[in-house]
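[User]
If only I could read backbone structure tokens as easily as an amino acid sequence. I have put the entry right below:
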Amino acid sequence: MAKTAKKTPPPAPPADPMPRRVDPCVATLVDKPPKGPEWAFEVKWDGYRLAVHVEPGEVRVITRGGYDWTKKFGSIVAEARQLGHASMIIDGEAVVLDEQGRSDFGLLQRAVGKKPSLHEPSEIIFYAFDLLYLDGHDLRSRPLAERRRRLEPIVAGRAGAIRFSEEVHADGAEFFRAACELGLEGIIAKRRDAPYRSDRRPEWLKIKCARRDTFVIVGYEPSTMPRAIGRLLLAAKKGNGLVYVGGCGTGWSNEEAVELRELLEAIPATRPPVTLKRKGAVFSEPLLVAEVEYRAWTQDGKLRHPSFKGVKKRARKVKVYSLDK
């Protein structure tokens, strides 16, 4: 009598099903770093927040908004296949570094976009800072310190498209001061004992380095609110002329928006002070300057996230930002 062959049992299902998408934990903006040994500090990278999903036979790159950008990040996808694990979800930031080793959002936009760029998509680096899922186990309920202990041996020491976002062992205030002196965007503080929770959370904090300079006001765009401005049009000095560096649409009250429009309507320009084709632009003589706080410069020479802080007359003693420096 023939023996019946034993059937191989099916593989056991994973302890935790792998989610198709995880809404990211988002840091809350605060004015200064927290104190205490329960906080870990990292560089705040200026790029695209991504989740890299590694599954058997598939790697997906998902943006903060839930879009599949796998095709845009070929070098990250290729390296993720070589990390030695069948399934995982890594949280991090895609960046392009400038010549000083700082993340530059403008360079990243150009590298990812369709316009010609000096930076190739292969120059994009994914800085991994959290591990949400690993080989059948959902790690989101585990403390940050444990999640990073598991992430570190997977990505630390790599110098290619995927790298480890190192913790900086320093006093938060000292680290923030040094980061700003180096021209970084800011720092991130995270509670070591906190689980991973989606959406904006107090367990993750961001402290930004802001730049502040003075720019010439060359006009405005009207607001939908009657008799008010919607955006200030700003320029910097270059040689003997002025160059448009972007519009600023925040930082004033409703009353100030009306007052600013009255000031600019009193000094209409006989001809545009800058080369700018923008529908709805109303040009003024470049007699006033605005003090503006902003994050950085984009690759095409515009202010990133500018915020109005005050206005004054353009006098010789007022130092206007120059692109020649």
